[in-house]
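Weekly sync, protein design subgroup
Attendees: M.S., D.O., the rotation student, P.L. (late)

Item 1: inverse folding check
M.S. brought a backbone from last month's batch and wanted to see whether the design step gives back something sensible before we order anything. D.O. pointed out we never logged the input encoding, so this time it goes straight into the notes. Structure tokens as presented (49 positions):
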């Protein structure tokens, strides 16, 4: 029997790089949402509905 899906060697440096990129992306997204909520709150305080 032949192995259809051979095991790839685990590259810890590549894993850490992807993890760091993912963490940076989540940080930017969460920071953007915080600023968005802040500006929406400021706009609602200035222009009462």
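Designed sequence read out in the meeting:
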């Amino acid at each position: 029997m032949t192995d259809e899906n051979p095991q790839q060697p685990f590259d810890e440096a590549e894993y850490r790089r992807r993890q760091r990129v993912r963490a940076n992306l989540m940080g930017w997204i969460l920071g953007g949402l915080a600023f968005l909520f802040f500006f929406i709150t400021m706009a609602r305080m200035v222009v009462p509905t």
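Discussion: Residues 15-48 form one domain. The chain has a mean pLDDT of 89.
Action: P.L. to compare against the previous round before Friday.
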